[in-house]
Amino acid sequence: MQKVYCVTPLYNDWTSCVVLADKIRQLEKEHSGFMFNLVIVNDGSVTLPEEDIFRSENIKILNLKVNVGHQRAIAIGLQYVYNEVNDCDAVVVLDSDGEDRPEDIPLLLEKTLKIQTIVFAERNKREESLMFKTGYWFYKVLFNTLTGKKISFGNFSAMPVNQLKKVVALSNIWNHYSGAVMHSRLPYSKVLLDRGKRYSGQSKMNFTSLVLHGLSSISVYFDSISVRILKFCFYGIALCFTGVFYILFQKFFTEKAIPGWASSLIMIITGIILQLFSVTLIVLLLQLSSRKNIDAPNTKKYLDFLED
User: Fold this and answer.
1) Which one, of 2, 1, 3, 6, lies nearest residue 59 by Cα?
2) N or C: which terminal CB in the chain sees fewer CB atoms within 10 Å?
3) Helices (H), the chain
């Protein structure tokens, strides 16, 4: 029998988590080959649960000292399982609100245990509003433009225990879990799944939180982004100089009328691009120089955040 630990971050949404816990308990009845355990990372919730279902021996609640955010809560849960659990075969990461459907966990587990790599749930149908879908589309375009990578999945994933020891050593999982896995070049796969509906209430993620969450995934690729910006600056400078030469050619070798402000505007734009190029180059060099300070992977950082 395969022992699976499901890690889920939670903040003031115990009502949804009750449904999640019950559905995971049903999964164990339907799939006799798996034994499920639920690790709830309580990310500084105002209230604590009172329902009897949370007193089950298969459920562990990690109460954090302060609210650290969704991604860091996931990192804490993963490091907890890695350090404190000795009989784990696979780990599942999912949200507690129902948008990551527990019914899809067996499919993720089947593939991850077969190919022994991390498997993410790639989104097929989404239940969000049109505004959210539009914003998510812009986010994917921005991510692809700045990093050169395509992202079509979130945190819902499964991994065998031999991959867990590599993931918990990644420093970027404290910033963005799925982005860190992509950036680390660890092997991963995807399964096309629909996104579910929330069990109860409204999302705790407001517009600011969503923007910061998206930028966090992009920031993981800071080095690559700096290089791409430098490349775009080169293209911009070349384009500006081409425009200047074109105007000079038209002015001295043809009889066409050239506006007096055209060359001045091009020179101003060139100056702006040069400044952007200089700032980006300096930031990139500072970032690369920081690599000389090598920090050993810390897989027990989670202990600093636990209240008990």
Assistant:
1) 6
2) C
3) 14-30, 70-84, 105-115, 130-147, 161-167, 177-184, 207-219, 222-253, 262-289
Structure tokens at 21: 């816990």
Residue 220 exposed, middle or buried by CB count within 10 Å (0-12, 13-18, 19+): buried
- For residues 181 and 170, give the distance between their C-alpha atoms in angstroms, rounded to a whole number: 8
Task: Give the pair of three-digit tokens for residue 254.
Answer: 């043809």
What span, in angstroms and rounded, lies between the C-alpha atoms of 274 and 238?
11
**What gap in Å lies between CA 213 and CA 82, rounded to an integer?**
25
Using an 8 Å Cβ cutoff, are 191 and 135 in contact?
Answer: no
Instruction: Sheet with 34-42: list strands edge to edge.
Output: 59-63, 34-42, 2-10, 90-93, 153-160, 118-123, 188-193
Residue 3: closest CA among 83, 121, 89, 97: 89
Kindly give the pairing relationship between strand 188-193 and strand 118-123.
parallel
Which letter, b or e, does each residue of 109-135 get, where b requires 16 or more Cβ atoms within 10 Å of its Cβ?
bbebbeeebbbbbebeeeeeeeeeeeb
Backbone angles phi, psi at 56, to 5 degrees: -65, 145
First CA to last CA distance, the chain: 30
**Residue 117 carries which side chain, given as an amino acid letter?**
T
Tokens of 41: 């990372």
Q: What tokens does 203 get?
A: 């999302």
Tokens at residue 105, please? Answer: 């966990």
